[in-house]
């Protein structure tokens, strides 16, 4: 799937490079002369983008009330069409969260697929500016939807959180007790991002019970 995603992405880029802007009054070529429609490349899973903008004013009791789904995509082409027409994380206001989760899974602790899981969290280095945040987010998305993780079935989705103090990107997984699967995901994610610092895995149940006092279950 990763090879198919790469091939389809390159094909789209080549196709886009051939486009030319028409001058006013210029006649478009005969539709019969156009090449056949580009073949669609279905993804192994459908994915949904979600957006949450609480403006930093919501309390934990009302968390998620501003969360809303944006669009569900099923193919490589749909992903790029959507990605190229939405704001990059660097353009979001502080306090906003952008999620990409497998279709049918809501980015909430209460979702049955997330309830017994947790999340790995990486913090883009501030020295690279906001551009690093955008790069990390894109590479994370491509690795997920391209099925580059050996334990991909464990992955629920990813979230990028824009904050004044420190931006973060997290990958949510299903089974916190499966240490081997979680460590495998963490190691491959760090390779995808070329990330050298340590990342920690926080279990959702621990976060709910202990709030800010919760400790990472695993570290890679």
How would you characterize this protein structure?
It is a single chain. The chain is 28% helix and 22% strand. With 220 residues, the protein is of the alpha+beta class. It has one domain (2-10, 38-219): 2-Layer Sandwich (RNA Cap, Translation Initiation Factor Eif4e), CATH 3.30.760.10. It has an 8-stranded antiparallel beta sheet with strand order 2-1-3-5-6-4-7-8. β5 (155-161) and β6 form a beta hairpin. The two termini are 26 Å apart. Pfam families: IF4E. This is eIF-4F 25 kDa subunit.
Query: Given the C-alpha coordinates, what overall shape results?
Result: globular
CATH superfamily: RNA Cap, Translation Initiation Factor Eif4e
- The secondary-structure class comes to alpha+beta
| Sheet with most strands: strand arrangement | 2-1-3-5-6-4-7-8
CATH class: Alpha Beta
Strand content: 15-25%
Average of pLDDT: 84
Spell the H/E element sequence. HEEHEEHEEHEHE
Low-confidence stretches: 11-31, 56-61
InterPro entries: TIF_eIF4e-like, TIF_eIF_4E, TIF_eIF_4E_CS
Protein name: eIF-4F 25 kDa subunit
Region (Disordered): 1-39
GO molecular function, one term: translation initiation factor activity
Short description:
This protein has 220 residues and is α+β, with helices and mostly antiparallel strands.
Element layout with pairings:
Blueprint: H1 2-17, E1 42-52, E2 68-75, H2 76-83, E3 97-102, E4 118-122, H3 130-145, E5 155-161, E6 168-173, H4 179-193, E7 200-203, H5 204-210, E8 218-219
Antiparallel strand pairs: 1-2, 1-3, 3-5, 4-6, 4-7, 5-6, 7-8
Keywords: Disulfide bond, Initiation factor, Protein biosynthesis, RNA-binding, Translation regulation
Region (Disordered): 1-39
GO molecular function: RNA 7-methylguanosine cap binding; translation initiation factor activity
């Amino acid at each position: 799937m990763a090879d198919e995603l790469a091939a389809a992405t390159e094909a789209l880029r080549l196709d886009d490079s051939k486009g030319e802007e028409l001058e006013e009054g210029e006649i478009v070529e005969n539709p019969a002369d156009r090449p056949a429609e580009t073949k669609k490349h279905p993804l192994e899973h459908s994915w949904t983008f979600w957006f949450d903008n609480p403006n930093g004013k919501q309390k934990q009791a009302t968390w998620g009330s501003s969360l809303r789904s944006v669009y569900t995509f099923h193919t490589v082409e749909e992903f790029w069409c959507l990605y190229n027409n939405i704001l990059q994380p660097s353009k979001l206001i502080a306090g906003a969260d952008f999620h990409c989760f497998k279709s049918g899974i809501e980015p909430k602790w209460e979702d049955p697929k997330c309830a017994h899981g947790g999340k790995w969290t990486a913090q883009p280095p501030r020295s690279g500016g906001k551009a690093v945040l955008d790069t990390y987010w894109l590479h994370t998305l491509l690795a997920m939807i391209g099925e580059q993780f050996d334990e991909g079935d464990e992955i629920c989705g990813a979230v990028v959180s824009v904050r004044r103090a420190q931006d973060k990107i997290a990958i949510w997984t299903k089974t916190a007790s499966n240490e081997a699967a979680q460590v495998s995901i963490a190691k491959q994610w760090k390779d995808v991002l070329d990330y050298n610092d340590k990342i920690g895995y926080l279990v959702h149940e621990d976060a709910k019970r202990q709030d800010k006092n919760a400790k990472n279950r695993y570290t890679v």
